[in-house]
Every structure is written in structure tokens, then in C-alpha cells.
UniProtKB/TrEMBL annotation:
GO biological process, one term: transcription by RNA polymerase III
Chief site of localization: nucleus
Protein name: DNA-directed RNA polymerase III subunit RPC6
Keywords noted in UniProt: Nucleus, Transcription
Compartment(s): Nucleus
Gene Ontology CC entries for this record: RNA polymerase III complex
Length: 155
């Protein structure tokens, strides 16, 4: 974190590049806050998957009903009231992406009507909790084993 002073007019909202966004407080990264958000997002997706399993529908309907949109997850987190900072949909999608990289969640994109809550450019991201069939080896659990750009930049 740089110690450069930034002067702003009192009535302007600072850009996220200046403040660090929701994950920073007084130029310090709030790892505990991020971890709590990770846990709560995953808990919500797990409960959605559990409710789908208990519905006694056919497997395809169970799988489809276990998905939740990023808007649903955002709404759940807002209703919990665990954040003093107003979180955006992009903030929640960042948290959901970390869960994808951890192998706890999978994402799919579906076509959605324009104006549908949570849709962007006619597409909607849906997430669901997954349980691994087998535990991954230690090498795969390293960050480079999960990173989607490791083959481009790591040599």
C-alpha cells in the first residue's frame, strides 16, 4: 500500500482503485471479513443444494434447482447484515470466484431475458456448491494447480 496522500473534494465518491474497495479498511486488507463472506456464501449454496436433494425430484431437476444466481447470494449476504460496508454484486462475484478456485463451487452461464434481475448483457451467472468425488493431491491444491492463467505466465 502506498503512502501517497490523495486530496479529494468532500462531495465526491472515491474510486475503488484509491480506496481498495470493500476488502480494505484503513489501507489494511481485511482477511477475516473476506473469510466470513467466503463461509457464508458457501453455506448459502450448500443449503440450496441440500434443499434440492430433499425435494425428491428427478436428478436433473435437483441439479438445476441447486443453482443460485449471484443476485440471490448478494441478497442473502445483505440480509445477514454481516457487512458494515455496502457490497456490490461484483464484490460477491469476486468471493464466489475464490470459492470456484477452491473447488467448492461451480459456475455456469445461462441466457436470460434483458431486464432480469442479476442478468448482464442477456447472460446470468449461476453458482452451486459441489462436493469432490475424491480429495485432490497436494500438488493440485497449490495455487498454481488451480490458477486459470498459470500456463500463460508461470514457467
Amino acid at each position: 500500500a502506498s503512502k501517497k496522500k490523495v486530496y479529494m473534494l468532500y462531495n465526491l465518491q472515491p474510486d475503488r482503485s484509491v480506496t481498495g474497495g470493500a476488502w480494505y479498511s484503513d489501507q489494511d486488507f481485511e482477511s477475516e471479513f473476506v473469510e466470513v463472506l467466503n463461509q457464508q456464501c458457501f453455506k448459502f449454496l450448500q443449503s440450496k443444494a441440500e434443499a434440492a436433494r430433499e425435494s425428491k425430484q428427478n436428478p436433473m431437476i435437483q441439479r438445476n434447482s441447486s443453482f443460485a444466481s449471484s443476485h440471490e447470494v448478494w441478497k442473502y449476504i445483505c440480509e445477514l447484515g454481516i457487512s458494515k460496508v455496502e457490497l456490490s454484486m461484483e464484490d460477491i462475484e469476486t468471493i464466489l470466484n475464490t470459492l470456484i478456485y477452491d473447488g467448492k463451487v461451480e459456475m455456469t452461464i445461462i441466457a436470460a431475458k434483458e431486464g432480469t434481475v442479476g442478468s448482464v448483457d442477456g447472460q446470468m451467472k449461476l453458482y452451486r456448491a459441489v462436493s469432490p468425488l475424491i480429495q485432490p493431491t497436494g500438488l493440485v491444491r497449490t495455487p498454481c494447480g488451480l490458477c486459470p492463467v498459470s500456463n500463460k505466465f508461470c514457467t
